[in-house]
Amino acid sequence: MKYQNLGGIMTDYISFSICNICNLCCPYCYKEKDEHIFKIENLIYLKKLKDLGINVINISGGEPYCNPNIHNILEELSESFYLYLSSNGLLIDKKELDYINQNQKIRLLSLPLYGSRKYNDSITAQGHFDKIISIIKAYKSGAYGFSLKINTVVTKDNLLDLERFYVEYLLGKDVIWRLFELQFKGDFKLRSSSVDYANMHIDGKIIEGFAQKMNSLYRDEKIFAGTKTDLKNVLMLEPNLDVCTSHPDYVKVTNLLSEDFEVEFKKLQEDNHLICGKY
Ligand code: SF4
């Protein structure tokens, strides 16, 4: 059965990878990367999703800025959808923030940051921490209409330092902070022979408890915990227009270009497999 792993999938949201390549090589990567880049001439097929009830598309990758057509894709899709943009931030500067801001359909910019400079850059790349902090500062000092979200994968290596990190760099900056459970999939899984998952992994319930504690200590902040259970409820669209679940192993549902896509998607909705989503 193709979609038995879907659980409760969100009905109006889809995550769309516009390329599977990336300019980083994070050890925690949830993605199995290859050379696929979304072809701009296939944009027409994405309009089908609007007719099927999708209202929000999260533009992701790999690194979406590694697709040279990213601006065309954002502009075309914003005619029909609200957009979220998930990037590693390396190619975003003040000019790009202003570009994002002038498109009122882009509602959210989502960036990773894993903790202190030394720790973060050991996962991403030297200079990545300072880049994200500079984006946060620019965001804070500008009048931007979109929301800024910082994503942090929580492991035993950074948990004890995260409150200090939050207070120093994120508290009061009007950013959403989303904590994620390390997932055993994608490139992380492929590298598993050299990574001690059991010794790094923290259960989602502990992460939720940490987020609750932070929210009670620092009121009016926006701190959320995303667990494996949340993440399985995301439909992902690959650059070649394969539609997959995000968990546990990118189970392919169908291809957007296939003739039976609409029938299969509607069946999911009718069977009540589709529920409203969250970012
Ligand atoms: S986690 Fe994101 S930024 Fe890091 S290598 Fe994977 S796709 Fe690139």
Order of strands across the main sheet: 8-7-6-5-4-3-2-9-10-11
User: What characteristic shape results from the CA principal axes?
Assistant: globular
Low-confidence stretches: 1-10, 274-279
How many individual β-strands?
A: 12
Q: What is Rg?
A: 18 Å
Structural class: alpha/beta
Helix amount, in percent?
25-40%
Q: Major beta sheet, specifics?
A: 10 strands, mixed
**CATH architectural type:** Alpha-Beta Barrel
Q: How many structural domains?
A: 1
| CATH topology (level 3) name | TIM Barrel
Distance between the termini: 27 Å
Portion in beta strands: 15-25%
CATH class: Alpha Beta
* Ions and ligands: iron/sulfur cluster
What is the average per-residue confidence, as pLDDT, rounded to a whole number? 86
Number of helices: 11
The secondary-structure element order is: EEHEHEHEHHEHEHHHEHEEEHE
CATH superfamily: Aldolase class I
Entry summary:
With 279 residues, this protein is an alpha/beta fold. The chain has helices at 43-51, 70-77, 94-102, 117-123, 128-141, 162-169, 186-190, 197-200, 204-217, 228-231, 261-270, and strands at residues 9-10, 13-17, 56-60, 82-86, 106-112, 147-154, 176-181, 222-226, 235-237, 242-245, 252-255, 274-275. Iron/sulfur cluster (SF4) is lined by residues 22, 24-26, 29, 31, 61-63, 88.
